[in-house]
Amino acid sequence: MKKFKLNLSFVLVTVLLGACSDGKDGANGTDGTNGNGGIDGAVGLNSLVMQTELNMGDSNCWMGGIKIDSGLDADRNGALATTEVTSTSFLCNPDNFGTTGERLSYTVMRNELENYYYPGSTFEVRNGGYGSDMDGHPMNTTQFYALTDRGPNSNYRTSQEGAPHGNGKKFLTPDYTPRIGLFAVQSTGDIAKIKDILLKDRDGNNISGLPNSAALGGTGEVPYTTDGEVIRADMTQPYDEVTNPAVYDDYGLDAEGLAALKDGTFWVSDEYGPHMVHYDANGKEIGRINAFTADIRTDAINTDYGLKINLPAEFANRWANRGMEGLAITPDQKTLVGIMQSSLDNPSKNRTDLTRIVTVDLETGNISQYLYRQVKGSNSNSAIKALSNTSFLVLERDGAFYNKGDETAQKHVYKIDISGATDLEAVAAMGDIEQNSNLGLIIAGKTIEQVINDAVDYDAGWAELAAKNILPVTKSTSPVVDMVNEVSYPHDKMEGLWLIDNTRLGVINDDDFATWSEATIGGPLGQKYLDTNNTVVDGNTLYIVDGLDLSPIQ
Length: 554
What we know:
Helix content: under 10%
Strand content: 25-35%
Radius of gyration: 37 Å
Structural class: mainly beta
Oligomer: single chain
Number of strands: 34
Number of helices: 4
């Protein structure tokens, strides 16, 4: 038989557990005395948010949008005061101006001409044409003026020798009146044309775009119809140089530069004379500046200023169809500033990288001249706008189409300053330097253009000028904006600038009324296309580039 040894600890635990199973709860103790109440904490401040709708033209949201302010209601009045704002953000309305641009509207002037690029079909001559220059409305930051040139035209060579009546231009709408359009940017991103201002002579008659006579800078361009007939006094009778000659218009303009003044008037420069013409708010001529002292119209010039002013005579030697392409007014509204498109043919053909800038003090009549050096010879300076009384933006371009495969296409805007440049008008005659009444400043018997053109290279010519202490304007080493890099700019003729504010710049192109002509005998006509496949028709397009430093050169 097995024996078991009983564990003593087990017995003790069992006895104790049995003893606790039937005990009674003890009585509750007396509650303690309540402590003193604590001091109330400060009431917290409410956080407030305020939204403000921004109108078109706001400096932070140019297309309009919403301004969002937030902060704490420190004065506890339930409204967010300016001093309480701790954070501000903006929700701006989007636009396409800085990417694809926005096209201006147009009407069709004629559409029955055969399209050279698609035989058997016709093309549209569009009006259009608002791109020779532009300028902002002085009192409305969302409106701008845009200028047309002489109207739809094309080069016309009748033969290799220019017979029978001479080479010239075909005018597709000979009665076209150059004009200034007023446009407004809409909150939708569209552009609305508000009105046209037709340019008129001093008697209030509409001018044309037909060439001037030889006495006023005409270069012998014969005006033709699209059928190759000379535009003459009596179109029912045959052309005769004496009895039924070609029609010229001494008030006619190939308008290229535009300055809109605060008093509502306009100054327009052109490439026929070149002329600088003052128009009232309705487009009627009230003054004129040019290089032709024999122009009797300058006897009553600038009635607003009581002055007769002529440009230096050498400006009459402008390269044909490359006259005064850009025009600006300084911020104090006292000085006109014009820039020539390319070199002067002074006294004969001199195609270099030198162009001229002229300033005209409208109060005193004083004139100054300065030199500008282009990136490439025979480039075009197509616009100038004032940042200050001495600093300017200058548009410099070539004539290439980037979208037609020319990756070297140049569409640049530079900053310049004239304060350190040599005023050619102030250079005193000394040694081999003289001032010629017809050719301007002469060095060793050569005009400024000849000095550059006759050198081994352009650098040597500019060095020769520098040795005579003749210095060009200061120019930014890199462009303020390169439109090819910015938007793959597809147009050939970038020609207008709109200085909107300190960071925004508007850019517009001349679409040539959507027409194009081949540089061959007879000048066949067609639609103007932007691509090699001839599918995208050119049109006036506004681009707005933001984020630029448009402050004057210090």
